[in-house]
Structure formats: structure tokens, C-alpha cells
């Protein structure tokens, strides 16, 4: 209000002609002045002389580079695929690519991106081992799973799409049963589709309810050998109920196994993070077999998951501790991780994606916080340097991690722009 | 999106500028989908919605890292449901939260499981959560929605955000708005957020184009007066139509430097425009 009053006194109408003359005068001074601040003012004045509708922004805060949120390897074709949540692209690299320290970045061999692709804010990726098809999970703004053939390149429509609930994050596929699993953040649910589903096809199973322990679910991994499903939860949850606006609508018009998506007022809770473990075919309001949760577990916004059934190990991309935590598949309660991959040499920063390449014996990490995909031996622990690293930006370029900035505020006291995701 | 956070950037930041600080991590209680943020200059606090936990979180203005909120409004008495859009009236010490059926008003210092002190039921579906702003100088509350009784579109659709509704700040219960601004001449198709500049009586709104478009040539920021009514064109537009903006979302004003700050979903960016005309 202090600022408002000050501006109220000074906010006298100014004609565009006057602004134009002032802008010209300042520009002349700025050209001969060594002070950049004068040039900035000149730029502002010049922009002010342009009609607002055509006015270019003075400044744009934007990460110009691919920010990689998830990763998967095409084992047959030796390619590694990342989802770029910042520029809305799928980027494909040679599996053995390794960005030299002196190089600005590695250019992807193939990019899928553009308005026709219907990609935005994708957080999960799966590669069909037989066909090489790329399944990309749109986490926000586009309620579709988009599937591209291996030949897809550039701004092309998906070869197939599947309408999904809003807020899908993680993906896993049971190839033997041809079932596709997706976590749903907004509805605290897991939906299971036939792998070949498309368009408006309904899920074949739904896991949702107060007893499931699902709470802002993120990554998902399945163990088809031991018939288990693992889900990483950030912890926020509220009860769901039928949407009252659907009252009177025939049940035939409501999709089967679709999550309840209407929040019960005042039922919200913010729980500690967890890994919940279920039978692979769990459905309904099933209670988890066990839950990893507690201070010893060190979970802090756990995101992507991968599982190694042979070793009986579960890998967790633990976003906020810049680490990959490894648990036993059989762990529950306040279990400490078996080992952790963490430290400055690892190059891991805000990891959100993890992929275990059993064929080549490699563990891949997508670090959303530093534009990199890094590779390690699966048993790596401590502060171990990666075997290889693919960087999508100059090493000194910070990853802004802006994601669907739905709001903005200005802190007048600190002269800062506040941007929530 | 993969990573919830509140990032702070210097006013003059551009390009790949490093954030000056971030609020992030389990201890912050944040989740994604914060469709609002309010900075309270008088009390030096930051307020955000937490939709998945149906909560409102208040942080110290200087909060950084994994810092816990100083207040949390959450619980059965609150009636919080979608909790994605809110605004703060720091002058009258009130917090306004948009829900499907109405606007819940809490005391600014509210904490824990508290009931709203009043509820406005505007008689339109607000579930799309377009925007809300309070003008404490003229005692007005601005909402986005369809004209009451017009029955445009399906509930929750963009058609439900095709106008600006002007109420008295302290209205409660079932009340008709003082004014509705919308119609073909207004260019309003889908409002995502609203701001006000009380000293000049401006309403500033993000027009985001048609629902379903990933990017829109019709996107712009429009400015109307609090005295406008009906189908009137904006006094100014900035960033479009057919301009820089593709899917504008957040709006903030910097009166000292006479700039308008806009976040854009498709550009995944924050843009600062010189806009001396409105200050």
C-alpha cells in the first residue's frame, strides 16, 4: 500500500508521443554511456513506446536447455531416451554417448517435440523392448499417454494415444501379461490398462482408497518374478468421493475403473513420504503388504523407482537428497537403505528418474537438477563418479526446474520474483 | 511436474539465471500444482495453496531451503477441497480461497483446523479455479466465472471462466455481482488469473485462449477498469493477441519499476513487460 500511494501521486497520464520522445532521448544517451543501467532504462523506455499488444518482454526467465526428468534404455537398439520436461521433448541419444567435459552438451540423435506431439511436462517414459515404441507420460495439462514409434522424429502426432486420468506420473509395464501401470498424483491411485489400449479405453484395474496408503504417488516399479508392485509417495493425500455433478448420469457413461476424483472437503493430510508395496494384481482399496517409511529410510520426495528381481533390490531416485537409495525388496517400516549413491563426484542433482539396464549391467539416473543422464554400475555406492554422463546443457547452466508456473508473485522487499510449480 | 518448488529470482534475472533461493523439500509440506502465490509486503510472508493436502501454507518472507511453514490451515472445519487458487488482503488481514461452490474467507493469521469466517456463494461454478483478487481501496472482490444465470458451457469448462465478476469485498452468502465484464468485444475466452491495481482501479486478467489448445495465438493480458460493465474491450492488451504469450498463467505487478510480470505455461517461463500505462 505504501508503494501504491507513491505511485498514485506519480501516475499522471503520459501521451505515447511524449514516451516516444523520451525513449529516443534516452537511447541516444545510452549509446554513448558506459553505464548499463542507462541502457536498460533506454530499453524499457523504447519498449514503452511500442503499443503494449506488440511490446516485447524486457526480460524472460527461461531454461533454454532440455531438463531431463525420466530415462529409459532401448536395449535392442542401444539408445537411451529421456523426457525433457522443460522444452516438452523426447530426446534420444546413443547409449554409449559420453559428453566430454570441454563440450557444451551432447546433441540428441533424435528429438520428438512440438505442438502436434501433444507432449507437455512429461515425467515418465517406457520403451517397448520388442518394437522400440516410446511411451511418454504427460504429467500435467495433457491427460494423455502418448506413444511414438521408434521412427518418429520432429513435430509429429503420436502413433497412438490413450486418455488417462489427470496427473499421471510413473509408468511400468508387465510385458508377459501385456498390462500397463500408471500412477495418478491427483487421485492417489494406480490405474492398470491393457498395454495395447488406446483412445478412450477404460482401465482394467484400479487401486485407490484410504487403506492403500497412496499419497501423491510418483514413481512405480513392478517385479513380475515375485509378483510385486512398488510405489513412491510424496505424502500429501485427501479422501476421494464420487463427483456430485455426475449424479443422475447413467453408469454406462462413466468409465470403468476410473478413479474417484472429487475431494472430500477438509479431509486433507500431509504424511511422511513412503514406498508402498502391493501384490502385482492389487486392486480396489487394498492394504499394502508393507510400507517403507520413517527417518532411517531417508526418503525426501522419492520419485522414480526401478527394481532388480534377481538381486531383490529396489532403487529410489530420492529427489531432495541428491541421491539414489537402494532398499531390499523385502524391506518395510523404518528401514535404512542398503546403500546410497550420493556425493559431489556422482554428479547427481535432484534425481527424478532411474532405469536399471540388466542387459548391460548399468544403472541410469535422470538428474532434473543439472541437465544430465548419468550411468553407474548397479552396485555403485557412496561418492562414485559416473561411468558416463550425457549433458544436455553447458555444465555451468543451472537447471531452473520451473514446471507449469501457474502463478507468480513479486517480493517488493527483496526485489525478487517468486515462481511456484 | 517432477519437482515441486517455490523459486525466487532476482528482479533483473533473465535466461538461465540461477534462483537466488528456493523453498523445497519434504519439510516445506509443499506439493505441486500451486496455482496461486501471494507475497504479503506488510507482514513479510509468502502464502501458497497445497491442493493435494487441502491446505494453505504460510512461510516467512525470507524462507529458503527445507524450511517449514509458520502456519498451516488444514482440517475438517476448513471446508478446503480443491485449494488451488487464493489471494491475500493484507490490509484487512483476510485470506480468500476459491472453491467450487464459493469463496472461503479466513483470517490472515488463521492456523490449524479453523472454520472460514464467511463464505461467498456467487452462484456460478468456480471449480475451474480461474482467479481471484481483492481491491482493498475500493473494497472490491474480483472473481472469474460465467455471468450468473447465463448457464454457459459445462461445469468446470473454460466457458465457466469467460468473464470477470465484481463483488463487494465483504459480500457473503448468495449474492449477485455488482458487475459482469465479458462478451465478444471483451475478447475474454478463458481467464486464468486476475490481479488488481487499486490506485488506478485496474483489473488485469490473463486471457489464455481456448481450452484444449496447448498454445494460443489468442492469448494476452487485458486491462479493464473496476467501473467497466458488460461487453467492453480491454483498455490495453499486452503480450498479444498474436504476441509473445502462448498460455499465460500467473500475474504480478511491480509498481516501483512499472512492470508487469507474467508466467506462461507453454513457454515454461516468466516474462517481464514494461507497462507504465497502468501505473
Essential attributes:
heterodimer; A: 421 residues; mainly beta; Neuraminidase; 2 domains; 4-stranded antiparallel β-sheet; B: 279 residues; 5-stranded mixed β-sheet; 38% strand; globular
Would you mind describing this structure in some detail?
The complex is a heterodimer of chains A (421) and B (279). Chain A has two domains: 17-51, no CATH class; 68-391, 6 Propeller (Neuraminidase), CATH 2.120.10.30. Chain A has three helices and 31 strands. Chain A has helices spanning 2-10, 16-32, 36-49; strands spanning 59-61, 68-74, 79-84, 89-94, 110-113, 122-127, 134-138, 144-148, 160-163, 168-174, 179-184, 189-194, 205-208, 217-223, 228-233, 236-237, 240-241, 262-263, 269-270, 274-279, 290-292, 302-308, 313-318, 323-328, 339-342, 351-357, 362-367, 372-376, 388-391, 409-411, 416-420. In chain A, the strands form nine sheets. A four-stranded antiparallel beta sheet of chain A has the order 2-3-4-5, with no helix packed on it. In chain A, helix 2 (16-32) runs antiparallel to helix 3. Chain A is globular and about 65 Å long. Mean pLDDT of chain A is 90; it is low at 1-38. Chain B is built from no helices and 22 strands. In chain B, strand 8 and strand 9 form a beta hairpin. Chain B starts with 5 loop residues before the first strand and ends in a 5-residue tail after the last strand. In chain B, the strands form six sheets. In chain B, strands 7-8-9-10-14 form a five-stranded mixed beta sheet, with no helix packed on it. In chain B, strands 3-4-5-6 form a four-stranded antiparallel beta sheet, with no helix packed on it. Chain B has a four-stranded antiparallel beta sheet with strand order 11-12-13-15, with no helix packed on it. Chain B has 279 residues and is an all-beta fold. Chain B has strands at 6-10, 21-23, 38-40, 45-50, 55-60, 71-74, 85-89, 94-98, 103-107, 118-121, 132-135, 140-144, 164-168, 173-174, 179-181, 191-197, 202-207, 220-225, 236-238, 248-254, 259-264, 269-274. Chains A and B meet through helix 1, helix 3, strand 1, strand 16 and strand 19 of A and strand 1, strand 4, strand 16, strand 19 and strand 20 of B.
Amino acid at each position: 500500500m505504501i508503494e501504491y500511494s507513491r505511485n498514485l501521486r506519480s501516475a499522471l497520464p503520459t501521451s505515447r508521443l511524449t514516451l516516444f520522445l523520451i525513449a529516443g532521448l534516452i537511447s541516444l544517451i545510452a549509446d554513448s554511456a558506459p553505464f548499463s543501467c542507462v541502457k536498460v532504462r533506454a530499453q524499457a523506455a523504447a519498449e514503452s513506446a511500442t503499443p503494449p499488444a506488440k511490446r516485447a518482454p524486457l526480460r524472460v526467465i527461461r531454461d533454454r536447455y532440455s531438463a531431463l526428468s525420466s530415462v529409459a534404455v532401448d536395449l535392442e537398439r542401444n539408445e537411451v531416451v529421456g523426457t525433457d520436461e522443460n522444452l516438452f521433448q523426447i530426446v534420444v541419444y546413443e547409449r554409449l554417448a559420453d559428453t566430454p567435459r570441454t563440450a557444451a552438451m551432447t546433441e540428441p540423435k533424435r528429438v520428438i517435440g512440438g505442438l502436434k506431439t501433444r507432449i507437455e511436462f512429461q515425467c515418465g517414459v517406457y520403451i517397448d523392448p520388442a518394437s522400440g515404441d516410446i511411451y511418454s507420460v504427460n504429467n500435467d495439462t495433457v491427460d494423455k499417454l502418448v506413444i511414438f514409434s521408434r521412427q518418429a522424429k520432429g513435430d509429429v502426432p503420436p502413433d497412438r494415444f490413450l486418455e488417462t486420468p489427470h496427473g499421471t506420473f510413473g509408468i511400468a509395464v508387465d510385458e508377459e501379461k501385456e498390462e500397463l501401470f500408471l500412477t495418478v498424483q491427483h487421485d492417489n491411485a494406480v490405474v492398470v490398462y491393457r498395454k495395447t489400449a488406446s483412445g478412450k479405453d477404460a482401465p482394467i484395474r484400479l487401486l485407490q482408497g484410504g487403506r492403500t496408503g497412496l499419497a501423491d504417488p510418483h514413481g512405480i516399479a513392478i517385479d513380475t518374478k515375485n509378483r510385486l508392485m512398488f510405489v513412491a509417495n510424496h505424502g500429501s493425500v485427501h479422501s476421494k468421493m464420487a463427483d456430485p455433478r455426475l449424479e443422475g448420469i447413467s453408469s454406462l457413461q462413466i468409465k470403468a475403473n476410473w478413479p474417484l476424483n472429487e475431494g472430500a472437503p477438509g479431509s486433507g493430510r500431509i504424511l511422511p513420504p513412503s514406498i508402498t508395496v502391493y501384490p502385482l494384481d492389487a486392486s480396489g482399496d487394498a492394504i499394502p503388504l508393507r510400507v517403507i517409511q520413517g527417518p532411517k529410510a531417508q526418503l525426501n520426495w522419492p520419485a522414480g523407482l526401478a527394481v532388480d528381481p534377481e538381486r531383490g533390490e529396489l532403487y529410489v531416485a530420492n529427489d531432495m537428497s541428491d541421491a539414489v537409495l537402494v532398499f531390499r525388496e523385502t524391506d518395510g517400516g523404518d528401514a535404512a537403505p542398503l546403500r546410497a549413491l550420493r556425493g559431489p563426484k556422482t554428479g547427481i542433482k535432484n534425481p527424478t528418474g532411474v532405469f536399471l539396464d540388466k542387459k548391460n549391467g548399468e544403472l541410469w539416473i535422470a538428474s532434473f537438477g543439472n541437465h544430465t543422464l548419468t550411468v553407474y554400475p548397479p552396485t555403485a555406492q557412496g561418492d562414485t563418479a559416473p561411468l558416463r554422463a550425457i549433458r544436455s546443457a553447458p555444465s555451468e547452466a543451472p537447471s531452473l526446474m520451473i514446471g507449469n508456473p501457474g502463478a507468480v508473485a513479486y517480493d517488493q522487499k527483496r526485489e525478487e520474483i517468486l515462481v511456484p510449480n | 511436474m517432477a519437482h515441486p518448488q517455490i523459486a525466487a529470482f532476482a528482479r533483473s534475472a533473465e535466461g538461465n539465471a540461477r534462483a537466488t533461493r528456493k523453498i523445497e523439500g519434504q519439510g516445506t509440506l509443499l506439493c505441486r500444482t500451486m496455482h496461486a502465490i501471494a507475497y504479503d509486503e506488510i507482514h513479510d510472508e509468502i502464502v501458497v495453496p497445497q491442493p493435494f493436502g487441502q491446505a494453505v501454507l504460510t512461510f516467512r518472507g525470507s524462507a529458503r531451503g527445507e524450511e517449514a511453514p509458520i502456519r498451516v490451515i488444514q482440517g475438517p472445519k476448513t471446508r478446503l477441497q480443491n485449494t488451488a487458487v487464493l489471494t491475500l488482503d493484507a490490509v484487512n488481514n483476510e485470506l480468500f480461497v476459491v472453491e467450487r461452490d464459493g469463496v472461503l474467507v479466513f483470517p490472515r493469521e488463521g492456523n490449524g483446523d479453523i472454520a472460514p469466517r464467511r463464505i461467498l456463494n456467487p452462484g456460478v461454478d468456480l471449480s475451474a479455479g480461474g482467479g481471484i483478487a481483492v481491491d482493498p481501496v475500493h473494497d472490491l472482490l474480483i472473481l472469474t466465472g460465467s455471468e450468473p444465470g447465463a448457464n454457459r458451457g459445462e461445469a468446470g469448462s473454460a466457458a465457466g471462466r469467460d468473464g470477470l465478476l465484481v463483488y463487494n469485498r465483504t459480500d457473503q452468502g448468495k449474492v449477485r455481482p455488482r458487475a459482469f465484464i465479458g462478451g465478444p468485444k471483451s475478447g475474454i475466452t478463458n481467464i486464468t488469473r486476475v490481479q488488481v491495481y487499486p490506485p488506478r482501479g485496474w483489473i488485469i486478467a490473463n486471457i489464455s485462449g481456448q481450452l484444449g489448445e496447448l498454445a494460443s495465438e489468442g492469448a494476452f493480458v487485458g486491462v479493464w477498469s473496476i467501473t467497466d460493465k458488460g461487453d467492453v474491450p480491454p483498455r490495453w492488451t499486452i503480450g498479444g493477441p498474436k504476441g509473445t504469450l502462448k498460455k499465460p498463467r500467473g500475474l504480478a505487478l511491480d509498481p516501483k519499476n512499472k512492470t508487469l510480470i507474467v508466467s506462461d505455461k507453454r513457454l515454461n517461463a516468466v516474462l517481464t513487460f514494461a507497462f507504465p500505462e497502468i501505473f
